[in-house]
Specification:
- The protein is an alpha/beta fold.
- It is 45% helix and 14% strand.
- The radius of gyration is 21 Å and the shape is globular.
- It starts with a helix and ends with a strand.
- Belongs to the DprA/Smf family.
- Pfam families: DNA_processg_A, WHD_DprA.
- This is Rossmann fold nucleotide-binding protein Smf possibly involved in DNA uptake.
Amino acid sequence: MQDEKIYKVALSLTSGVGDVITRNLISYCGSAQAVFKSPRGKLLKIPGIGPKTADSLLGKNALLLAEEQCRLAEQRGVRLLFYTDSDYPRRLKSIADAPVLLYCQGNADLNAAKSVGIVGTRKATPYGKEITETMVADLRRYASVMVVSGLAYGIDITAHRAALKNGVPTVGVMASGIDIVYPASHKNTAHQMQELGGLVTEYPFATKPDAPHFPARNRIIAALSDVVIVVEAARKGGALITADIANGYNRDVMAVPGNIGQSHSEGCNFLIKDHKAHIYTGIDSLEALMNWQEGNPTAGKPQPEWPDASLTEEEKQVVLLLRHQKEMLLDDLSWQSQIALGKLASLLLTLELRGVVKALPGKRFTLA
């Protein structure tokens, strides 16, 4: 096993170290291994690191747990994707609370040209299931597309099964360890998905589904999607949580309108009424919103042009991030660009002196 991989997994398993602190640690230390090799005094100077967390990093418990996770992953054909890895999903890299480590099983291209999240009530009606099946079948026209959902009863599992039926890659985001399919009745579907898509989770092996895991799972569904479509939903529930998160991530949201007075339609109608979702009336409405063209994997929203050719590759990377997100915190720029904080501060100063970027209060930066 590669030592660095074990150290990466260990960071995700260390008590007191969450996603944000992990990115801070990597920014200051340069690598996962360097974090665990750093002296206590250096660790305590890093924002967010107190005595208890420093002691956890200097202990051996997380490394032992990580070795076991890596062994299980190797045995079961599970990929471990750390946020600094080149094949980590690019869509997740754009959100501040992205999981630092993903456990992935199957052959899904998590960077497919187009990605559609489909969510809805667990108590789907025949109409909701029919709409979902038609929606997924219509996605076959695209050369590179994936359907993302949460493996739950109702609309979720209908979307996954329709994708398998129509030969559309589909990804199930789990609220448990990748070895624990929930609900258990969906095990066969989950197994089939690994042949045409796959399973994704941020939780280690043997983690049981727990209530807080589900909204956390929903943020990954939202982030992995270019557009989230809510088919049927009550006024409160996981589907609306996913839609709210997607809006917060600047993802497009669509909702299928339903009959007034029906509980399973209240959520969708509310999203449309409050302008939190565009109305979905068929594949044409999706294509119009997303500017997708049939059979062209590169069609979609216009891609940003490269900045001035006189900039270095790292400077171009920073400028593109700022062009996409308008303004960013220094720490967020560091983890998304994978440029160490010290080097990034010097780079930003150079760009500021050249009139390319502008520093704002609170260590925020924007294009000049």
